[in-house]
Amino acid sequence: MTPTRPGPRGRALLLVLPALVPVVAVVGAALVSAALLSLGLAPLVGEPGLSLDAYRAAAGDLGTGIGLSLGIAAASTGIAVVVGLCLALAATAAVRRSRLLGALAALTIPIPHLVGAAAIGLLLADAGFLARLLGVDPASWPPLVGGQLWVAVVAEYAWKESAFVALVVAGVLATRAASYGETAALLGAGRWARLRYVTLPLAAPALLSAAAVSFVYTLGSYEVAALLGRAYPEPLPVLAYRLFTSIDLAARPQAAAVALTTTALALLVVLAALRALRRLAAER
């Protein structure tokens, strides 16, 4: 008997396995270690014993951090999706200036978030470039950096992630939107009708996937919120880092509890995005 060859999905899985197995092993070991530490089964000091004391001790800051992290991620992802979609539409248009605009926007992708945060801080601070350019007195400049609304943090994430969204969506539209759009135009569809019934449905899966990636990344990112945000309240990554680096070893289980909570939220977002993608695929 001749051996059966794997199908397209099987071949794709075999190609991904060499990279997937080490990642799953490392991340899985880290999550198991954090879970044991947060539940008191692998304490740094004292006797091991199943306990939820770490979650109870961090409950107050944890609740505030969840709301703040979700708010920052939602706001920055929403802005990034809108701006990224507009950039993708411009980049795939048959206009040289629009393509140049898309190429310039994509240049922000290689810039590290830490460098972007420093640039946004220098731009939006009360004595920054924008305030000096507009001639506004620092005392009357709104607190965009370290302020109550976390404007600088949201602006940095939205700026960086919009380029990522534009790149992902433009890659899909560049290969499929032109032919479908021409067919719709021949059938009498106007510009707005082609955008609504052709371009947006084609871009929806890629847009949703990019939005989920951006949301999860923003939810777990530390450096931008630590550099541009307020000292209190703290987003989940900043809270976890502060507890983990505390001189009090008893705070390590709390840091693990915060990290596991962040991971659980990220997994819920990923599952919701996968469910939405399946629903989109079923409707098409």
From TrEMBL:
One Pfam family here? BPD_transp_1
Q: What transmembrane ranges does the database entry give?
A: 12-45, 65-91, 103-129, 195-217, 255-277
Work out whether the entry's keyword set contains Ligase.
no
Source superkingdom: Bacteria
Q: Which SUPFAM superfamilies match?
A: MetI-like
Provide the ABC transmembrane type-1 domain boundaries. 66-273
The topology of this chain with respect to the membrane is:
Multi-pass membrane protein
Q: Which InterPro entries match?
A: MetI-like, MetI-like_sf, Sugar_ABC_transporter
Q: Which UniProt keywords apply?
A: Membrane, Transmembrane, Transmembrane helix, Transport
Q: Name one GO cellular component term.
A: plasma membrane
Q: CDD domains this protein is in?
A: TM_PBP2
The record, for PROSITE patterns, names: ABC_TM1
Q: Name the Gene Ontology biological process terms.
A: transmembrane transport
**Compartments reported by the entry:** Cell membrane; Membrane
The similarity comment for this entry is: Belongs to the binding-protein-dependent transport system permease family.
Protein name in UniProt: Carbohydrate ABC transporter membrane protein 1 (CUT1 family)
Q: From which organism does this entry originate?
A: Blastococcus xanthinilyticus
Taxonomic lineage per UniProt?
Answer: Bacteria, Bacillati, Actinomycetota, Actinomycetes, Geodermatophilales
